[in-house]
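Readers of this paper often ask what the protein records in our data store actually look like. Such a record has a labelled line for the sequence and another for the backbone structure tokens. The tokens are whole numbers drawn from a learned vocabulary of local backbone shapes. We quote a single record here, exactly as it is kept in our systems:
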Amino acid sequence: MRMKMTLNIAALVCFSLFAIAVAEDPYRFFTWNVTYGDIYPLGVRQQGILINGQFPGPDIHSVTNDNLIINVFNSLDQPFLLSWNGVQQRRNSFEDGVSGTTCPIPPGGNFTYILQVKDQIGSFYYFPSLSFHKAAGGFGGIRILSRPRIPVPFDDPAGDYTILIGDWYKLNHTDLKALLDSGRRLPFPDGVLINGRGSNGAYFNVEQGKTYRLRISNVGLENSLNFRIQNHKLKLVEVEGTHTLQTTYSSLDVHVGQSYSVLVTADQPAQDYYIVISTRFTSLVLTATGILRYANSAGPVSGPPPGGPTTEIDWSLNQARSIRTNLTASGPRPNPQGSYHYGLINTTRTIILSSSAGIVNGKQRYAINSVSYVAPDTPLKLADYFKIPGVFRAGSISDRPTGGGMYLDTSVMQTDYRAFVEFVFQNDEDIIQSYHLDGYSFFVVGMDGGQWSDASRNQYNLRDAVSRCTTQVYPKSWTAIYIPLDNVGMWNLRSEFWARQYLGQQFYMRVYTTSTSIRDEYPVPKNALLCGRASGRHTRPL
């Protein structure tokens, strides 16, 4: 009888382990080799950064909750990291791939990122985060599809295209970095690209009567771009992981660092049509074209490419305000996106951030609240985990603009886990700006011209503001966001203007809890690279 009971218990344990294994979220494996290679995006040979020989790099296709195992071999002659714009790295900022969280992959070395796209859907991208590598390529699209039983608020498209747009220089990334290191500003870009190609180099095939999804990401270095297709409408359906109200536009402003999904129906006579991108808010307008090619096309593109807005701010502001969350649609889970009533939650803290440009020690620098960020010799997250003193000081950046002169420091803002915080980006400069926060999506509750004040809250959208991870701030204007701080870690808040980011317009937000439970934060990865003052430390046992 005892033997029979033992066998039954053993069988039950085996069945339980089998059930756990079956229930585990799927794994997707990638092996990437990062190399230099000749590219000619604007007709001039340049040293590009390729992934598995591709420029841009390969797309990552995934489904909500998938585990992504990405083994990156660095065949460059410089340290290298990839970061994952919009992937929230729940409880795991160690994998974020920026200098404040992750040690660089040394030349000739490799590192395996272990990511989970936990409770996420939507369109994002990855990019190289160190030095000025982003100006040479190394970027690609990320798409996270809904799980099969989760309803999506539109029919499956006939095709699904990644469209990476951005401004581009003919100078190599090393020359651009040298300009910045010498204390100078970058010149105006030489052109704009669609999927790494200049005018008429990128084309997308469609069939008449069918509808296609275009995932558009601005992976450029500075400029906002307007996207449009000759004689076709764009139906917006998703913004950085949020299903939106399905508003139709003739063209769409995509600010640097942002991602959008639109549906386009091939409802015109069968021929070729221009896809156009052009710079916004610039005195010199750079333009590039691609081709929307119908099957059995009767002929090439005809007429001039359609024009778009150029310097009009109100046009763009009104469009931004019209982008709202579809409250009845499901997100990554079956429950409606509108079931989280962010507008009914009291904020626990208000943080006002103001950028500035200035000269420090004879060189051009940029700052937030007067602090121009300087990277330490050890990733902040590793210093925090191993309790290494002297690397950073929490609270080294103020909650409000100080009005003082610019200075250099390793700026880290201390915040509390599970706080509900209001951030205000105050832009007193005469250029448009774009900010991104790693590890989070936030609700863009308001934006307007002039100075923000307490009275500005009267115009906040507290019902269906879009939730995203990158927001623009118009010239001499403000943008306000709400953030539920539900993701412990060290998270980079940065300008998406890459020269400004490189020269100090960024900081790290330490979302802190005294808890050491893995329900709140994972320990350092077993395979973590250790550098700086973390060298020689031990990760956890295998």
Observations:
- Helices lie at 2-23, 173-181, 313-322, 380-385, 498-502.
- Residues 1-22 have pLDDT under 50 and may be disordered.
